[in-house]
Design the sequence.
């Protein structure tokens, strides 16, 4: 560990707060971003704290091996990326601020060299350049990777929730459920409907499921095949299926395509079958 690197480390750590104030002067971003000057006081204080720690972590990398630096950096970026992802901060803002941070950082290295009373070899300055720039590059690499993973996981969770909400099994009684299907059905949605419906039916211990197709304007061979698969799978679970709401144009298309619904229980009125279910349940309760 050479004396000049140790002195530079101490200089950067001692000036971390001043560094952060200089860094903040470059911020002029949209409202809602953690980097914005109009951020709430607690958010701004958190940013200052994180940035000051960032200054110290990069300074620490002057005294560490590359592998040690990577471990320290990853632990910091994982926490910071999670914090940023909860705001309106975008990845392009993060990248921009990475460049700003780098410029300010080298300004402070330059100040240290100018204020030092000793002659610092050029070779040592280039060694600082390699260590500092490696650390800054690795910060950006790990931060963006973690940030994107968090966002992708969040999108996946939201997508899954939307899919589940788009195919809800509504409980009519303790044993009878209703599955209203609305809109177009492609291969992906058909698979989601199959998986979600089976799981919901099993969880609710249903003995009958009413599948309402009144919101479906197009039934092709693929859609019909998925409906058949769903009914077969429900039968294996011991759930009786009833289809209602087949529109006239859908019925004509089914006949034109040669689709055979003869082995499937169909009803032309959702209201009537629900009334029958309620009546049967009412009679059972009064026995």
Sequence:
């Amino acid at each position: 560990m050479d004396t000049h690197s140790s002195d530079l480390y101490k200089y950067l750590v001692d000036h971390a707060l001043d560094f952060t104030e200089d860094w903040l002067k470059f911020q002029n971003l949209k409202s809602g971003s953690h980097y914005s000057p109009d951020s709430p006081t607690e958010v701004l204080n958190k940013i200052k704290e994180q940035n000051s720690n960032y200054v110290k972590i990069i300074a620490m990398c002057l005294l560490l091996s590359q592998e040690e630096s990577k471990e320290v950096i990853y632990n910091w970026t994982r926490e910071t990326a999670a914090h940023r992802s909860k705001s309106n901060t975008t990845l392009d803002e993060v990248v921009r601020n990475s460049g700003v941070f780098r410029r300010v950082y080298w300004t402070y290295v330059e100040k240290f060299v100018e204020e030092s009373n000793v002659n610092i070899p050029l070779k040592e300055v280039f060694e600082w350049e390699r260590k500092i720039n490696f650390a800054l590059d690795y910060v950006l690499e790990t931060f963006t990777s973690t940030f994107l993973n968090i966002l992708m996981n969040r999108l996946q969770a939201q997508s899954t929730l939307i899919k589940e909400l788009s195919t809800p099994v509504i409980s009519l009684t303790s044993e009878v459920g209703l599955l209203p299907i609305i809109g177009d059905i492609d291969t992906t949605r058909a698979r989601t409907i199959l998986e979600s419906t089976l799981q919901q039916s099993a969880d609710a211990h249903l003995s009958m499921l009413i599948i309402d197709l009144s919101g479906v304007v197009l039934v092709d061979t693929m859609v019909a095949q998925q409906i058949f698969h769903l009914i077969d799978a429900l039968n294996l679970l011991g759930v009786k299926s009833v289809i209602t709401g087949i529109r006239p144009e859908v019925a004509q298309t089914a006949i034109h395509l040669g689709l055979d619904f003869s082995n499937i229980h169909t009803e032309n009125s959702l209201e009537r079958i629900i009334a029958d279910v309620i009546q049967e349940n009412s009679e059972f309760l009064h026995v």
In short: Residues 91 and 248 are 50 Å apart (CA to CA). Confidence is low (pLDDT under 50) at residues 283-287.
